[in-house]
Each structure stands twice: as C-alpha cells, then as structure tokens.
Amino acid sequence: MLGSLWHGLKLRLTTQRRLPKKGDRVVMAMSGGVDSSVSAALLKQQGFDVEGFYMKNWDTRDERGVCPSEQDWHDVQQVCQQLDIPCKQVDFVKDYWHQVFQDTLDDYAAGLTPNPDVLCNQHIKFGSLLNKIPDDAWLATGHYCRTDGYGRLLRGREPAKDQSYYLSTVPWTALQRTIFPLGDIPSKRQVKQMAHDMGLLQVATKRESYGICFVGQHRKFADFLGQYIDQPAGQAMDLESGKIIGEHKGLFGYTIGQAAHIHHGSHKWFVAHKDMESNTLLCVPGSTHPALFHQACIARHWTWIHTYRPSSPSINVMAQVRYRQQPLKARLTQDDDGRYRVTFEQPIRAMARGQQVVIWDRDWCLGSGIIDDIVPANLPI
C-alpha cells in the first residue's frame, strides 16, 4: 500500500534481523490466564529455557473491591510447577501508578477516553519488565500478534483476536527482543483446546478477564473511578432541542457513543458530547444519529514504531480507533502544527478524544497517536 515510501526502511531492517533459537533464555510474562500459560508451554516444548514472570501492578491494600490478583499468582505458580519452569513475582505497583493509572485518572477527569492497556504495554510490560531481564534473553507475551525478527509488529492470524492495536506505541527495539507464541494460532478456541490437551485444566476453563484487573469482576468501572475522581452530577440535555432530559452522575463515567441510561420519553439516548465547562452531558436519540458519526480525527503524541516518517506528506493507510473495530481505509497527513490527521473514506461512529488511533500497512502496524480533536461527518439528519 505504501509502496516505495517504506522501501528504504525495509532495506535497513533486513540487515538487523534477529531470530530466537533453541536453548535461548525466554522470560514469559504470565498473567494466570490461558493465553500466557499455553505460550509458556509452547516455548518449553520448542526447547527454550523458559522462566515465568508475574507482574504485580496493583496493591490490593489500596482497593476496597475484590481483586483476582492473588488467585492469578496462584495459577501462575501452579502452571509453572506443572511445566517444570521457575517463576517469580515482580512488583511494578509504583511504576503502574505513576506511569499508567494517574494519567488515566487525569484523562477521565478531563472528559477524555484513554486506553490504559496501551500505556501499560508501553511503560510496564515493554518498559519496566523488559528492563529487568538480561540483554541476551527474550521477552515473550501471550498477545495475539506477530513480529518477524526485524522489529516489525504484524497482526495476529485471527482477526477477531488481533491485539497489535494495544502494542502500537512499543518501539521496534523492544519488539525485536519479543516472541509472540500465539501469533500464528488461528483461533482462541484452539488455544483453549491446546490447554486442555496439555493438561493445563485450571486455565483451560478459566473465565477470561476483560479491562483493568483491579476493578474486580462484579463492579462497574464508573463506580471504581468515582473513588478517585471528584466530579459532581449534572444535567443531561438533548443535543438537538437543548431541553433537559435527565441527570448524569459525573461526566467521567460516560463514553461517546454508548447508551446514556437516561430515561426520558420513548427514545433510547446515546452520549454525543461531554461539555466539561458547563458539566453537561449532551445526548441524542438513537444509536445511528448523525451527531455520532465523524469523518476524521487529529492526533497528538504520535509514535512511529520505527521512528521513521514517510517522505510524502500524505499516505494511504488502514486505521482503527478501537480494538476489534474493522480496519478502515484512511488518509494520513501531517498538519502544520506537527499533529497527524487521519481522514476516513467513510464516516465512522463514536470517535472520542483520548482514544488511540492506530495505522497499518496491510498487516504491518506502523504506529499511532492519541485523538486530540475530531471532525464531524456531514450527514443529513
């Protein structure tokens, strides 16, 4: 797609290829779930010298809810014992608080929609953890994506589980030291079957965790954030008429495009905008209202994985603003202020400031930025 624009980069990468070989030491980042457990087993089967590392990112003494971290650590120990590999717990509580959680709180308080998983991968898993392992060792994770030894980040074989979106700010120097054992596995179902066949029964049927672990399995995310963000309730307003239709419980708990849970009239209301200055939640009736669609976004803090910028001021890419969103054709251009504009061929629904916009050349992830502004689509009402 990008053609000769990336030819020079590809030539340079071919001279720096690094591939793992049997007997190499590998530090496996283990979570207590099926993905990292099967990854560890595959590496052991392939003859690598494997050691499991469990990252402790949250101190349960600071949390009034129920965190599954102790059970996860127990599962990691059990799996490693079964595989006959050593394991240890590494403490990144302070790193996580200062480099991920505090920024996440600040963004939510400012009305943004941040992605803490992107920050965690950038600063903790491929930052603090990678810095703890020897220079001659590999890092392995259970992400569904691939790398080719040149430090290129590639999509996983299963489109529905591809997780390269979350790694779009990880530098190629870190990716060149990383192994993704599940990158070529065609389905999550097969991974679970592999766990069963390997005798890893405690993780084969374990419920998959979503989101941030310390929120707990039975708590609402907005309730959790409310312990740290002091924002008052306010009015919910119909964007079209300006009429008050209800009350919100704090703007930090609402996401653009999601149901507002406002009961007024016969409509189902959806969040279109958060006015932080007036503390007002602006809503529209119906999930396909034109106000929910946008044509372009402008991104700050742009990261090129290879610190390589295309020579052309405008290039065609595939882009996503959410994990599991279908990749969409777009045009990337650099604005005069240094930010990047991503213009989609077709309007997309529910873009929000603070989200990560990620670009690819086919399956090759090139980088990403944080959405700073959005451009509405000109759709008829």
TrEMBL record:
GO terms for cellular component: mitochondrion. HAMAP family: tRNA_thiouridyl_MnmA (MF_00144). It comes from Absidia repens. Catalyzes the 2-thiolation of uridine at the wobble position (U34) of mitochondrial tRNA(Lys), tRNA(Glu) and tRNA(Gln). Required for the formation of 5-taurinomethyl-2-thiouridine (tm5s2U) of mitochondrial tRNA(Lys), tRNA(Glu), and tRNA(Gln) at the wobble position. ATP is required to activate the C2 atom of the wobble base. This is tRNA-5-taurinomethyluridine 2-sulfurtransferase. Residues 223-282 form the tRNA-specific 2-thiouridylase MnmA-like central domain. The keyword Electron transport does not apply. It catalyses: 5-taurinomethyluridine(34) in tRNA + S-sulfanyl-L-cysteinyl-[protein] + AH2 + ATP = 5-taurinomethyl-2-thiouridine(34) in tRNA + L-cysteinyl-[protein] + A + AMP + diphosphate + H(+). One of its GO terms (biological process) is mitochondrial tRNA wobble position uridine thiolation. The lineage of its organism: Eukaryota, Fungi, Fungi incertae sedis, Mucoromycota, Mucoromycotina. Belongs to the MnmA/TRMU family.
